[in-house]
Write a structure and sequence with these properties.
Number of strands: 7
Largest sheet: 7 strands, mixed
Shape: globular
Radius of gyration: 15 Å
Strand content: 15-25%
Order of helices and strands: EHEHHHEHHEHEEEH
CATH topology: Rossmann fold
Distance between the termini: 39 Å
CATH architecture: 3-Layer(aba) Sandwich
Number of domains: 1
């Protein structure tokens, strides 16, 4: 087990269409021996969508991790002073969260978890999922790429013909990215093409 005893925070933000895939990866982390501490954004904690009710996702997250879910800024803040985590994953990481993180805004539990964790100079792994990654958020992604202790999961254009600005991380690469980040390394290659159907 590659992550035996490693304390990993797992932050979920509101790319609701991606949540089901992410939950499969959280199960992999637990199977690899990680101690997973769940954090959800306000959107995940309270928004019902066609992809599932907020209560369903939170209940499932609790069942997988067997830990209380951090849902408030107040509950996320101690991650820093208590040095609670060895590494923090944000997956899926929406364009909204990317933009706020790149500009130092801390107004959700997800962002507070990242800010609190980064103060300990420990790695943060970002799995982007945004429709404007090659639009307005391109500069924010570039900022994160050049920020110390932030590592990105390999990503690509998931639908360049219908959504040419959309970028999505390869979810199946999260675990490998984490293993590299724990050694202070960015997994390569970072830009990985999706298999296109057109």
């Amino acid at each position: 087990m590659r992550l035996q005893g490693v304390r990993i925070g797992f932050v979920l933000t509101g790319s609701h269409c991606t949540l089901n895939k992410i939950f499969g990866e959280i199960e992999r982390f637990v199977a690899e021996g990680a101690e997973v501490y769940p954090v959800v954004s306000y959107s995940v904690a309270s928004t019902d969508t066609r992809f599932g009710a907020a209560s369903y996702w939170c209940q499932k997250l609790h069942e997988i991790t067997r830990r209380p879910i951090i849902k408030t800024i107040v509950d996320a803040e101690p991650i820093g002073p208590q040095k609670l985590l060895d590494l923090l994953v944000v997956a899926p990481c929406t364009g909204n969260t990317i933009a706020k993180l790149a500009n130092g805004i801390t107004d959700t539990p997800a962002l507070m978890a990242v800010k609190a964790h980064l103060r300990n100079q420990r790695p943060v792994v970002i799995a982007i999922s945004t429709n404007d990654g090659l639009g307005l958020n391109a500069r924010n992604i570039a900022t994160l790429l050049t920020t110390k202790n932030i590592f990105l999961v390999p990503f690509g254009q998931d639908n360049p013909f219908e959504k040419p600005n959309s970028l999505v991380a390869h979810v199946d690469k999260i675990l490998d990215t984490v293993c590299f980040a724990l050694e202070g390394k960015q997994i390569q290659p970072l830009l990985v093409e999706y298999k296109l159907t057109k």
